Fold this protein.
Amino acid sequence: MLTTGSKNLDALLGGGIDKGILTQVYGPFATGKTTLAMQIGLLNEGKVAYIDTEGGFSPERLAKMVESRDMDPNSTLQKFLIFEAFDFKEQKKTISSLKKIVNGKFSMIVVDSITNHYRIEEKKSSMTTDLGKQLQILLWLARKYNLAVIVTNQVYFDSKQNTLKPLAEHIMGYKCKDILRLEKLRPGLRIAVLERHRFRPEGGIVHFKITDKGIEDIEKIKSSQTTLE
Ligand SMILES: Nc1ncnc2c1ncn2[C@@H]1O[C@H](COP(=O)(O)OP(=O)(O)O)[C@@H](O)[C@H]1O
Ligand SMILES: [Mg+2]
């Protein structure tokens, strides 16, 4: 298991992010998906292949996290192998190329987000097939090298059910065994909800905040804690 660096989140996940499977982290923008993925890469042994489709990966942000945690900047920043994918075709090629790049030295693959280019293109049905194939390659890599895979996902508003839903919910839910949803309740207060897990009860909630260090636990919620922190 890979630690998230949050005691509460690790407990919610039954120890941390598991290896050999795909974990989906989804939620609206600025809920902490990228911060969480970077933090997990930072805090665990092994290399990280990070596919950034949104331009959300920030070396400056990572450096700040390293500095606030008194970690060694050289060794930590070198762990990350960053790929950028500006469209779905490039994303497909990059994920496929991981078969030649990833080896036993890697502990994690991140695709952040796997659906950024899914939303805006037209032929949805063939894209769903493609997305399924990409997830299948990631799963194969997860098993072959016993590594963790985090795929982040965005949300859309489903007016019929009057709720926010993950994009490509069916295929994503089919391939990702563990699903974590992030939400922003108010400034300085975010929650992570365990939506599905192989051996933990669903619906568990932990509170967290985003700081210079990254994701940090909030132990107790005071009712007076409304706006500024
Ligand atoms: N040093 C920091 N201290 C506190 N909050 C921060 C810091 N750096 C970034 N943030 C906050 O983190 C949020 C972005 O988180 P991010 O992980 O990029 O979200 P997502 O990937 O879900 O869009 C923003 O609300 C931003 O203000
Ligand atoms: Mg992001």
Remarks:
- The chain has one domain: 7-217.
